[in-house]
Design a protein that fits this description.
The structure holds two protein chains of two kinds. Chain A is mainly α. Chain A is built from nine helices and two strands; from the N terminus they run ααααβαααααβ. A two-stranded antiparallel ribbon of chain A has the order 1-2. In chain A, helix 2 crosses helix 3. Chain A is globular and about 60 Å long. In chain B, strands 1-2 form a two-stranded antiparallel sheet. Chain B is globular. The chains are: A mainly alpha, B mainly alpha.
Chain lengths: 252, 609
């Protein structure tokens, strides 16, 4: 299509879409209303299961099957990235050279690393009690490790980041979620049923399977994000493009 | 343990297999990874087929509330998996096809990433889990989650051969257009949630039915957006552009899955959402939905058939034939009745076998000769009579030769949709089957004249026509000198399956029951929310008719005649002038596809209004 035709199709289509959506929004319930059928039911169900964070109860108990799907999306995305960003036959690997780091940056990152790591673990561990959980905390943990790249250099990061181990952790998190679900089935309940004792409300051990599934997600997300970033960093730092003068498709 | 209890395992088993393959991937020899992949996909297939067999005569919809969150008085917070025959049947079809695809890739497939032998089978297993979950879920948001899962994995599988630029480009387009569809679907789900406070299909439907009346703009927008998202997956015009670009570059075993069943899942989703949510008194009037699906279906069928005939790149040819058949499926679903739906069920089953077999044969050509170009391969595959025979039989089955399942499904759709639909079906079958037969005659028999120029004519390579020359083989160690047995047996088995769909009377009766249960709006709500085993009214099962057989034979004869006429004529140096605008339309430009997506949503809304 020529630019002109494309622009016309885009403008007309966009206007139609906008009109449709605007008309639909006019039919939405008013802001600040007090009718929340699902919210009311979900909070009631969360309290019955002694889970203080109703969102965690929705994620890991009431709609735990959604979370299984979402976890698998991340798992699949990481696996897909490993496949797509692999070192191809015509690419070379070059060990990165150490780079000088400004002293203030180094001091800041050294200070921030343990604090960030601790906060990440806290967010994972308290997912069933307060806002946060495995998804959020896992990302914080993975980010904390990468402060080492900023503080020192890529080789230091590689030393604490054996990617193979994190790949195993990624898979173990995914498998653990499935095993907890199947365990409930073996125990005679439905798949992913909350079969553990609910515990005392608002304590770390409350919520039955919620903290267990939450921890599985935490492991999967932390390890998955580390692997994901490792692939991108490898591609950016270590892997070299094939030499420009090589004939195209020399790897055939 | 009841059948319902086991439904989540159909999703969980392949997921667990993927986790195992990734976890052990570094220590796993290639052979073990492939065996594990087949074991887990086969396990899910056995579960799905077993559940299907166990429920065939009994209450038609085993429903399982995951986590035991069964609703009280029709109100609940949980997710339900529904093993109705269409959903379970699709899960079974997905699993069997994944098994066939893994068997086809057995040992021949090019090295996976070093030290990651489990990556490829792992991705395929996740793809299987996503598709099975999508087929089984009775929850709209959960369906979106699985829609995204199959999307994410499919993008990675499409771009698998990163050494070249084209797979990356094709996967990017695929991801872009499908993500747009995903956003639209999510917007629509949000609108429905805002209106009803529910996410389950049955619950949303029940809430809407509590306020009968004409649809207001919110409901029209919600239906349009959700349907548009799903129709992107289904590759309906004008959302179809990604399909040929992705199929041309995806590894052959992945094409078998994309064309064989993923595209059809988009149609399944559209019909499922309509029947469970919008088919009641508080939904969208049937006439409007009929109009929308019919218009898109006819457009899709015609455009797909024409584009299919124009291709010389065999994978693109097969991809456009999938688009054309999607159109016919849509015409069948647009009848909004159990009869047409039953026809589509049979057609989809037959089409999956035939299309996957055709892709499998094309893969053999690619790996033997490093080309999928109809003209470049002229006469070169004379040495492969078995593959050639299978390819030709696939072409005949695609054209609707009785007693293949494709012919049966097509005949039932024709009957249900009325006289003009017969003409459409015959035309589509003749064009798509004819294109495949034409390619078979050129490639495997060396009939007709060669292409006038081996070197592309000026303006050809740069512009409108995509040739299939100089493709990278997908096998280890370059071009194959001997075709592995698995690559020859799998297409034969798939074609035999398509034949069985047409021949087994039990399958016809089951398809009739499945379609009746699928199109029963009230029965679905009653059995999912209230556990009422609602046996649907027994209709006459779809069956062969004299007219259907005759039309099928006519379409096949037309296809053969078209193919012979095409190879007899000298090959023109340049593409015919009238095809240029059509080819320009399918530009491969992401911006074009985005523009068409927006225009498509607008058109769909206008049709529903």
């Amino acid at each position: 299509m020529s630019r002109r035709v494309r622009a016309w199709v885009l403008v007309l289509g966009g206007l139609g879409f906008a009109a449709l959506f605007a008309a639909a929004c006019a039919g939405l319930p008013h802001f600040g209303g007090d009718l929340h059928p699902y919210g009311d039911r979900a909070v009631r169900a969360a309290l019955l299961r002694h889970t203080a964070n109703a969102v965690a109860s929705v994620n890991f108990d009431q709609r735990a099957f959604d979370t299984l799907g979402e976890e698998s999306i991340l798992f699949g995305a990481v696996l897909g990235t490993v496949v797509l960003l692999r070192q191809t036959r015509d690419e070379n690997r070059r060990p990165p050279a150490p780079a000088p780091v400004a002293a203030p940056v180094r001091r800041y990152a050294r200070l921030a690393l343990p604090v960030t790591l601790l906060i990440g673990l806290y967010i994972v561990a308290h997912g069933q009690l307060s806002p946060g959980g495995g998804f959020q905390g896992g990302v914080v943990v993975a980010t904390a490790l990468h402060l080492l790249y900023i503080a020192v250099d890529y080789r230091a990061l590689e030393r604490i980041r054996p990617v193979g181990l994190y790949e195993v952790g990624d898979a173990a998190g995914e498998a653990a979620y499935l095993l907890v679900g199947t365990g409930a089935l073996v125990a005679g309940a439905a798949f992913l049923a909350n079969v553990l004792p609910y515990g005392t409300f608002n304590t770390l051990s409350s919520g039955g399977t919620v903290p267990v599934l939450n921890a599985a997600i935490g492991v999967e997300v932390a390890c998955g994000v580390v692997v994901l970033l490792a692939r991108f960093l490898d591609q950016a730092v270590e892997i070299e493009d094939p030499p420009a003068d090589a004939p195209e498709g020399a790897a055939k | 343990m009841s059948v319902a209890r086991l439904l989540p395992l159909i999703v969980a088993v392949p997921m667990f297999g993927a986790a195992l393959l990734v976890g052990a991937g570094r220590r796993l020899p290639r052979h073990a990874a492939e065996v594990l992949g087949c074991v887990f996909s086969g396990g899910a297939a056995a579960l799905a087929l077993g559940a299907l067999a166990a429920t065939s005569g009994a209450a038609p919809r085993p429903a399982e509330w995951v986590g035991g969150w069964r609703p009280r008085h029709g109100a609940g917070v949980g997710i339900v998996l529904v093993g109705d025959p269409v959903g379970l049947g699709l899960a079974a079809l997905v699993s069997v096809l994944v098994l066939a695809s893994l068997a086809y890739a057995w040992r021949y497939f090019d090295e996976p990433p070093p030290r990651h032998a489990g990556s490829y089978p792992g991705l395929v297993l996740l793809f299987q889990a996503g598709m099975c979950g999508f087929a089984l879920t009775g929850d709209l948001f959960n369906a979106f989650v699985f829609f995204e899962l199959m999307g994410v994995v499919a993008y990675a599988l499409t771009g698998y051969r990163v050494e070249e630029a084209r797979p990356v480009q094709g996967a990017l387009i695929f991801a872009l257009v499908n993500s747009l569809g995903g956003y639209a679907a999510l917007l629509g789900i949000g609108l429905l949630y805002a209106r009803t406070g529910e996410l389950g299909l049955a619950q949303i439907g029940a809430r809407l039915d509590a306020h009968p009346g004409g649809p207001d703009p919110l409901l029209v927008a919600a239906f349009t957006l959700v349907a548009a998202g799903l129709l992107v997956k289904a590759a309906a015009v004008p959302f179809h552009f990604w399909l040929a670009d992705a199929h041309a570059v995806a590894p052959t075993p992945v094409c078998m899955l994309l064309s064989g069943v993923m595209v059809e899942l988009g149609l399944y989703g559209t019909a499922r959402v309509y029947w469970t949510v919008f088919a009641g008194p508080g939904g969208i009037p049937g006439a409007a939905v009929h109009r929308a699906l019919l218009v898109l279906g006819v457009l899709t069928a015609l455009l797909g058939a024409v584009m299919c005939w124009l291709q010389r790149h065999l994978k693109r040819l097969l991809a456009y034939s999938t688009v054309a058949h999607t159109g016919v499926f849509l015409v069948g679903l647009a009848t909004l009745g159990p009869r047409g739906t039953g026809g589509v069920v049979l057609y989809v089953l037959g089409h999956a076998g035939v299309k996957a077999a055709l892709f499998a044969c094309t893969g053999v050509l690619l790996d033997r000769y490093g080309s999928v170009d109809e003209h470049q391969l002229h006469g070169r595959a004379r040495e492969l009579p078995w593959v050639g025979g299978l390819f030709a039989v696939g072409g005949l089955a695609l054209a609707g030769l009785p007693p293949f399942g494709t012919a049966l499904g097509k005949a039932v759709v024709e009957e249900a949709a009325g006289g003009w639909a017969t003409a459409l079906c015959v035309a589509v079958s003749a064009a798509t089957g004819g294109a495949v037969l034409r390619a078979a005659a050129r490639v495997f028999l060396g009939l007709g004249a060669r292409h006038p120029a081996d070197a592309p004519a000026p303006g050809e390579e740069g512009g409108e026509e995509t040739t299939g020359k100089d493709e990278e083989p997908e096998t280890r160690g370059g071009l194959l000198s001997r075709i592995p047995d698995t690559m020859q047996v799998v297409p034969a088995v798939l074609l035999a399956g398509a034949l069985a769909v047409g021949l087994l009377p039990g399958l016809r009766a089951a398809a009739g029951r499945a379609a009746a249960a699928f199109t029963d709006h009230r029965g679905y709500t009653a059995s999912v929310l209230h556990g009422v085993p609602a046996p649907p009214a027994a209709g006459e099962p779809p069956d062969w008719s004299a007219a259907g057989i005759l039309w099928g034979l006519l379409a096949t004869a037309l296809a053969v005649a078209l193919a012979l006429a095409a190879v007899r004529r000298p090959v023109p140096r340049e593409a015919a002038r009238w095809t240029v605008p059509l080819r320009r339309l399918h530009s491969g430009h992401a911006g074009d596809y985005v523009a068409w997506f927006l225009a498509g949503v607008t058109v769909l809304a206008a049709l529903v209004l």
